[in-house]
């Protein structure tokens, strides 16, 4: 496993691989890898000749009162896990090389960035788009692998790649879950025993929403009510948002049809967890 820290080193390794005719798969992460990340590495390693994983806790995507300073990290462990799943190269840039003095640019995907998570995390998706654009420019991969857990992030980055005619194919990969349904996340380590026991309620709320849609409910407000009722039953869960939206534009239409993205964010103590399900109106009816 190679570790590269400099942008020029990474660019050189990528040019060399492309020169050999190798296909490059790229998995951007903020480290503290879990099965969700590792499933992306599995897929990238299966579909490419060179699999690059970046590990960078991106300050631009954290708000002032968020967990940037305490974000969990264990680079040594990450490298072993990544190598064992087929990663060939770990790219660990320093903040000063990605954002040197004088750095002034930002990438925004208008409107989509302000919905769902963007409402309570202003500037978050601008930070994500800016870092991913820069990483893609340096790594220059053929394919970019993203987790579907961050559904809005995947939708926004797909839009950015399309709008900017970037030559990379974006693959959104399924959520990996704990046996009780909780979506894997680096932030799950923050949960106390009691919060951990309560955390699957977010998934249960989304499943209740999916059931009402599959039985033919088309009113997103009523679907939201069903989901909120499930969350109300759990004392420790504090709702940020839970919504039924159109997966293309993240808007809530008056009536839903076809595919519907059910997405939510819930606080358990000081930990904010997100999850989502892609559901279908009338899927359960004959
Ligand atoms: O999903 C994440 O971990 C981050 O948002 C990403 C894509 C690595 C950008 O910092």
- Sheet with most strands: strand arrangement: 1-4-3-2-5-6
Query: Which range does the strand content fall in?
Result: 15-25%
Number of E-state strands? 9
Q: Choose one word for the global shape.
A: globular
Bound molecules: pantoate
- The DSSP helix count reads 10
Nutshell version of this structure?
This protein is of the alpha/beta class. It has helices at residues 7-19, 35-47, 75-84, 95-98, 117-120, 124-139, 151-163, 193-198, 201-214, 220-232; strands at residues 2-4, 24-29, 50-55, 89-91, 143-147, 169-173, 237-245, 259-268, 271-280.
Describe what you observe in this structure.
The protein has 286 residues and is α/β, with parallel strands linked by helices. It is built from ten helices and nine strands. The strands form two sheets. A six-stranded parallel sheet has the order 1-4-3-2-5-6, with helices on both faces. The longest helix has 16 residues, at 124-139. 39% of the residues are buried. The mean pLDDT is 97. The structure holds pantoate (PAF).
Based on the model shown, name its key terms.
3-stranded antiparallel beta sheet; alpha/beta; binds pantoate; 9 strands
Question: Which secondary structure elements does this structure contain, and how are they paired or packed?
Answer:
Elements: E1 2-4, H1 7-19, E2 24-29, H2 35-47, E3 50-55, H3 75-84, E4 89-91, H4 95-98, H5 117-120, H6 124-139, E5 143-147, H7 151-163, E6 169-173, H8 193-198, H9 201-214, H10 220-232, E7 237-245, E8 259-268, E9 271-280
Helix pairs in contact: 6-7, 9-10
Bound molecules: pantoate.
């Amino acid at each position: 496993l190679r570790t590269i820290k400099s942008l020029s080193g990474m660019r050189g390794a990528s040019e060399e691989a492309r020169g050999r005719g190798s296909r490059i798969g790229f998995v951007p992460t903020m480290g503290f890898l879990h099965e969700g990340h590792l499933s992306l590495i599995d897929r990238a390693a299966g579909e490419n000749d060179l699999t690059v994983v970046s590990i960078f806790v991106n300050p631009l995507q954290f708000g002032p009162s968020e967990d940037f300073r305490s974000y969990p990290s264990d680079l040594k462990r990450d490298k072993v896990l990544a190598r064992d799943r087929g990663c060939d190269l770990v790219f660990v840039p320093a903040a000063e090389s990605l954002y040197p003095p004088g750095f002034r640019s930002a990438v925004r995907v208008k409107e989509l960035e302000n919905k769902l998570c963007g409402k309570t995390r202003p500037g978050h998706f601008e930070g994500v788009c800016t870092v991913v654009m820069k990483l893609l420019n340096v790594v220059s991969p053929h394919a970019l692998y993203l987790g579907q857990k961050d559904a809005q992030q995947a939708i926004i980055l797909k839009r950015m790649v399309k709008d900017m005619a970037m030559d990379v194919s974006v693959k959104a990969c399924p959520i990996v879950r704990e046996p009780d349904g909780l979506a894997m996340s680096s932030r799950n380590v923050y949960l106390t025993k009691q919060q951990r026991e309560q955390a699957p309620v977010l998934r249960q709320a989304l499943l209740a929403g999916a059931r009402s849609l599959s039985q033919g409910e088309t009113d997103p407000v009523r679907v939201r009510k069903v989901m909120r009722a499930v969350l109300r039953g759990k004392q420790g869960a504090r709702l940020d948002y839970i919504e039924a939206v159109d997966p293309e534009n993240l808007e809530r239409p008056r009536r839903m049809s076809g595919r519907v993205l059910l997405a939510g964010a819930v606080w358990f103590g000081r930990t904010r967890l997100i999850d989502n399900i892609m559901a279908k109106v009338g899927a359960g009816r004959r």
